[in-house]
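The aim of this short unit is practical: by the end, you should be able to scan a pair of folded records and say something sensible about each. We start with the first protein, listed as its amino acid sequence and then its structure tokens.
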Amino acid sequence: MTKKFNSLSPEKLDNEHIWHPYSAIGAGLPVFHVESAQGCRIKLKDGRELIDGMASWWSAIHGYRHPTLDAALKSQLDKMSHVMFGGLTHDPAIELSRRLLNLTADELDAVFFADSGSVAVEVAMKMAIQYWASKGHAKRQKFLTVRSGYHGDTFGAMSVCDPETGMHSLFEETLNKHFFAPKPETPFGAICPEEDIAELKRLLEDNIEEIAAVIIEPIVQGAGGMRFYSADYLNKLRALCDEHQILLIFDEIATGFGRTGKLFAYEHSDIVPDMLCLGKAITGGYMTLAATMTTQRVAKTIQGASPGVFMHGPTFMANPLACSAAVASLDLLITNNWHKKVKTIEANLKDHLQRFIQLESVADVRVLGAIGVVEMKQPVDMKDIQPRFVEAGIWVRPFGRLVYIMPPYIIEAEELKALIQGMYSVLKTI
């Protein structure tokens, strides 16, 4: 039988038959063919090199083709690439668990591995619901969160994203309905006044019999707007949850592993969540993997009633290759002085992004850790701006009004300067 697709060029096949994230087949949005990547550089098939400002959606914190991570994967391949986690265990999963338990707060002493950040959020939500069912409160199946949040694209995760300003309004009639408080307004570094959390408090108290947990992105609201807010808001939120014995879930898929200047964003506050969702940078961007951490109190409550087990189990749970990459990545993070690197990036971002505020098209500039955000007054035109960034020799992937960078931690000062200069050269013409 003739394979009609064999005659198509790679570019034509990609354009006419392959979906890319948040895109449409044949829509004509620019897609750039990558040949290789190393360090902080992406090499296109046409020979151009781009300085990477996105760390592959914030995950490749050590850059590309890091010899330590390459070696970890090659070593694991000599043993096994995968084995089911049901009824079996292996050293990479045990060692990764040990590192996560040692790096996070003592209270977080139980680990569940999943495939992606969205699934880690789904797992946390299921844990919260099953926790209350085990305590005889099966009607507690709702969640309380805040506006401008983003938690992923699967159905449970979508249901706690902002239903109005988020990306999932099309699915409104299908998604479970939850409770949304106003987004935190107190800026990072400021003391949170009671009025900033007053509506959340009211929603919690008025709907206490239905709510299983509060879920929130600590300190940084990522894809919902790249907003930074007060750590004191989290202190007050924890106090409210404690007062009403409600579980608190922190989604640190984007912020975990040093991105905000702390190893975990919750460390900017004085509190610890009941559940912590981790992903993206956990493997240094090498493999898809995520984790949901919780307390023994939550775990034992779930296991203390029928069916006596937590009802979730992905096929590729704790994949040995991914766990090996994660162990190597975390060891690399700790031994290579990540804190100094992130602080240096933060200082350079603050120095070099300030001039953007003088541009007529720019509404705001903000920096936290290795996150630099230029908020435009109007949404950018991706068909126009993406090729122009590539022509400037940089890889930056804006969305809406936000042109932001979250580079690999290994980026050199001159590379970061060139990245920012490339951004400026494009944005000054808008």
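Turning to the second protein, read its sequence before its tokens, just as you did above.
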Amino acid sequence: MPQSVLVLGAGMVGVAVALHLQRRGVAVTLLDRQGPGEGASFGNGGLIQREAVFPTAFPRAAAELRRIARNRSIDAAYHPDALPGYAAPLLRYWWHSAPGRYVAAVRGHAALVATCLDEHLALARDTEAMALLRPTGWMRLYADPRLLEAALAQAELARRDHGVNFTTLDAAGLAAAEPHLLVQRLGAIHWTDPLAVSDPHALTLAYANRFTEAGGRLVTGDATTLRRAGAGWQAQASEGPVQAEAVVVALGAGALRVTQPLGYAPPLFGKRGYHKHYRLQGNATLGRPLLDTASGFLLAPMRAGVRLTTGAEFARDQAPPTPVQLARAEPVARGLLPLAEAVEQTPWMGVRPCMPDMLPVIGPLPGQPGAWCAFGHGHQGLTLGPTTGRLLAEMMTGERPFLNPEPYRPSRF
């Protein structure tokens, strides 16, 4: 059991790792180049997704692939010059998405998701974070009866095999639940378990405050300066070098900048996403997050306004933002809800860290004693941060892990 740990990355995952290690008596330093929760944890749909037991597989239908290839959709976009760099990880993503292999992804993902609500509440209890967690669930709307039928069949599987809860609404029930919708839909699935987060950044900050109030050390620094220091590790912070016996890489999409020089380069790839907030006209309200299947984006009520989120954009690392998906989505969103003016002029952009087998990397970094990994959560970093933090802290301190860590082992790559 290490007496001191340096956690690189102060997003939801890194903060949760730091908190769980601290609760086990470890002296933890949390290092990031910016403030807690200002990376990918800042921008998301704001959901603790207990229902997300089926990770998103690579599309296999020819019609769907043709639609994405046209590069005109809201849910997926790409920079043509970036595609060569994505070829290898996307090919592996496609391979792992084959029906026979996808079963393993579901098994591993569902095991992590099963405890996400309990793990969040364990960190949020007795703090200002509780006010940010709303038990509203979220709704997915359908206009096509075939899509609704298929979604209901999968929802029944989620309930039978993984204990997920949902209700169904017809057109009248949906209109009653969300009276300010401007369109009529055939029906909706209301996932009732998830917690909706009114400010994801504030949630990460609340957990970070709990860490520092209990004596944890939060510093600004450069994770890429990580080096061996005797039997331990050292990185450069603004106040000078910081050292610890062990290190955790929880840097999301930037993890390879630290692990690759250490000889570990898993096929991590990034999906960029954008969001923008809007006020609602008059006395209009939105009770819970809505995803309109026909439109391909999420609208979520937040403290800052209604958040319009996009799907995935594939671009080169450090390429300038190109929020074309938001430009495509906004007029459609105005046809769904009476949106007023935008709250901010410039949309937010972040990068989601994805693995081709749809499972995060949690465990010891191969060939580097005292180094550990906690990254690659895709779209579920907010959901799975506390679960990952507990699992990794138990592994690092010699406790019996509360779930089997084998599916997430870094050495699988």
